[in-house]
Write a structure and sequence with these properties.
Length: about 90
């Protein structure tokens, strides 16, 4: 089932659902391609140059901060890149 349809069904059938979305998402403003340019998809087994990942994170408006890993930042140490997402989940690549 389509994710949007699942959300709509949950909104109608349940009273404990909150959907968080941007105004652009709700009203369909902006082009899908513009949003896709600001995503970074990495799968297990992918081989990607470290510098390409760092550049992409900067293009996505993340800030490099090797001292304090906070929301919207990333740090690079040796062969690792650590990223903090807006959901405060931390990833090490």
């Amino acid at each position: 089932m389509n994710y949007v349809i699942q959300q709509q069904v949950s909104l109608i059938s349940r009273n404990d659902v909150i959907v968080v979305a941007s105004v652009s998402c709700i009203y369909g403003l902006g082009e899908k391609e513009e949003y896709e340019k600001n995503t970074l998809s990495i799968k297990v087994g992918d081989v990607i140059e470290k510098n390409n990942i760092l550049k992409k994170l900067v293009d996505m408006l993340y800030e490099r901060n090797d001292l304090d890993l906070a929301r919207g930042t990333f740090r690079s140490r040796g062969d690792s890149i650590e990223n903090s997402t807006i959901l405060f989940k931390y990833y090490r690549l």
